[in-house]
Design goal:
- The chain is elongated and about 80 Å long.
- The strands form two sheets. Strands 7, 8, 9, 10, 11, 12, 13, 14, 15, 16, 17 and 18 form a twelve-stranded mixed β-sheet that branches. Strands 3-2-1-4-5-6 form a six-stranded parallel β-sheet, with helices on both faces.
- Helix 1 crosses helix 13 and helix 8 crosses helix 9.
- It is α/β, with parallel strands linked by helices and about 450 residues long.
- A hairpin with a 6-residue loop joins strand 9 and strand 10.
- The protein has three domains: about 160 residues, NAD(P)-binding Rossmann-like Domain (Rossmann fold, 3-Layer(aba) Sandwich), CATH 3.40.50.720; about 170 residues, Dihydrodipicolinate Reductase, domain 2 (2-Layer Sandwich); about 90 residues, ACT domain (Alpha-Beta Plaits), CATH 3.30.70.260.
- The structure holds L-homoserine (HSE).
- The site of L-homoserine has 8 residues, from helix 8.
- L-homoserine (HSE) binds next to helix 8.
Length: about 450
């Protein structure tokens, strides 16, 4: 059978990996797909570099639209990134009846509803395994492998840059700014690492997994996002002493009403979290990714691997190429739906819960004057709010410094771990504790996930 013809838009790190893995493993990929898969056309602004990567025999152009207009191309791989031109090109490729393979999590997390609807109407596939956790086949696992399950929650380390930074802060006791520079020097973090360190990249990925797991629309705009810039090496050390590690987690959860058992909504959030050190995911170090999925039938499952990089991400891109090749002649109604659920089926209206209604436990660190009665005031406020304390740590006074009135006082840290409470209740309690004259600095509050 004639090979399927693929056009590649953007031959950077992932594009060049895709080209070379496809070539290296050509025979095996052909046996798996049932026919050859050939990249026959590449569009890149740097035509000379693109030509040097693919050699002769491949058409190289600087105009992506020439690829989309080519009637011989069956699949377009979009590796340009971002929401701008990439969005236009993906929509144009769909309109031209091309299947699309993309690694663009930002595009799908923000414009996925529009893109999947257009693809559905046109009867083409948009495949995006490479968009979430690089080489880990988590989209396939969620859409197909776990399809028997009612998914209860997903928690993932889905940004390698931030996991590298947190690992280095813990292992070397360094502060955030110092490690960020090292991450940039090593090429993990972008020159502008904002999307990584502010949690936006992880939020794009958890948004896509949430839609697949729960059959709800892609709704990045409703995700709660906090990054790691405010974390201190000191909190990482205290957490360690209490048996926890701090990880930037993307979390999505089906929240159930404890009394009625009915679903209250979906939690969709990215923030630093304390995780018990004994959990496997707490031991995922450096730039590696890991995703834990809890299903009602299967129990807890863990997926681990490289979340970025040329060939790991190419591995996912090519898996999609093989899937599309196997299925492109199938009746579109018989294909796996883009987001696992058939569009329009009932049950897609669960709301994303506001953070105030999310129930979780907390790590609190209060910098206080080391004076009689301070601890009882703090614990009294928690007791008033019906927030139960799980563990506590108080250091000896470590510093004499000025309080709000300019008086010299001995100071210390009180660290408290709480049991579960509503975030709204915790917000009120933190505001009351913060107002105590003996609380000398802004209270540090980090959420805690037992993941059991
Ligand atoms: N910047 C991402 C990360 C790369 O650090 O994980 C893959 O999305």
């Amino acid at each position: 059978m004639k090979s399927i013809q693929v056009g590649l838009l953007g031959i950077g790190t992932v594009g060049s990996g895709t080209y070379s893995v496809l070539k290296r493993n050509q025979a095996e990929i052909r046996r798996r797909a049932g026919r050859g898969i050939d990249i026959t056309m590449v569009a890149d602004l740097d035509v000379a570099r693109a030509r040097s990567l693919v050699g002769e025999g491949v058409t190289v152009v600087n105009d992506a639209r020439a690829v989309i207009a080519n009637p011989d191309i069956d699949i377009v791989i979009e590796l340009i990134g971002g929401y701008g031109i990439a969005r236009q090109l993906v929509m144009e490729a769909i309109a031209a009846g091309k299947h699309v393979v993309t690694a663009n999590k930002a595009l799908l997390a923000v414009h996925g509803t529009e893109i999947f609807a257009a693809a559905h109407a046109k009867g083409v596939m948009v495949a995006f395994e490479a968009a979430v956790a690089g080489g880990i086949p988590i989209i396939k696992a969620l859409r197909e492998g776990l399809t028997a399950n009612s998914i209860q929650w997903i928690a993932g380390i889905i940004n390698g840059t931030t996991n590298f930074i947190l690992s280095e802060m813990r292992n070397k006791g360094l502060d955030f700014d110092v490690v960020l520079k090292e991450a940039q020097r090593l090429g993990y973090a972008e020159a502008d690492p904002t999307f990584d360190i502010e949690g936006v990249d992880a939020a794009h990925k958890i948004t896509l997994m949430s839609a697949i797991a729960f059959g709800v629309p892609v709704q990045f705009d409703k995700a709660h996002i906090e990054g790691i810039t405010a974390l201190s090496a000191q909190d990482i050390r205290y957490a360690e002493q209490l048996g926890y590690r701090i990880k930037l987690l993307g979390i999505t959860k089906r929240s159930i009403d404890g009394k009625t058992g009915a679903p209250r909504g979906i939690e969709l959030r990215v923030h630093p979290s304390l995780v018990p050190s004994k959990r496997l995911i707490a031991n995922v170090e450096g730039a590696m990714n890991a995703v834990v999925v809890q299903g009602d039938a299967v129990g807890t499952t863990l997926y681990y691997g490289k979340g970025a990089g040329s060939e790991p991400t190419a591995s996912a891109v090519i898996a999609d190429l093989v899937d599309v090749t196997r299925l492109h002649t199938a009746d579109p109604a018989h294909r796996v739906p883009h987001l696992a659920f058939h569009p329009g089926a009932p049950g897609d209206d669960l709301p994303v819960l506001p953070m105030a209604d999310v129930v979780t436990s907390y790590y609190l660190r209060l910098r206080v004057a080391d004076q009689a009665g301070v601890l009882s005031k703090v614990t009294g406020i928690l007791a008033d709010a019906d927030i139960s304390i799980d563990a506590m740590l108080q250091r000896e006074a470590d510093e004499i410094a000025a309080d709000a009135n300019g008086s010299q006082v001995e100071q210390t840290d009180i660290i408290i771990l709480t049991h579960d409470t509503r975030e709204g209740t915790m917000n009120d309690a933190v505001a009351r504790m913060q107002a105590l004259p003996s609380v000398l600095q802004p209270i540090t509050r980090i959420r805690k996930e037992e993941l059991a």
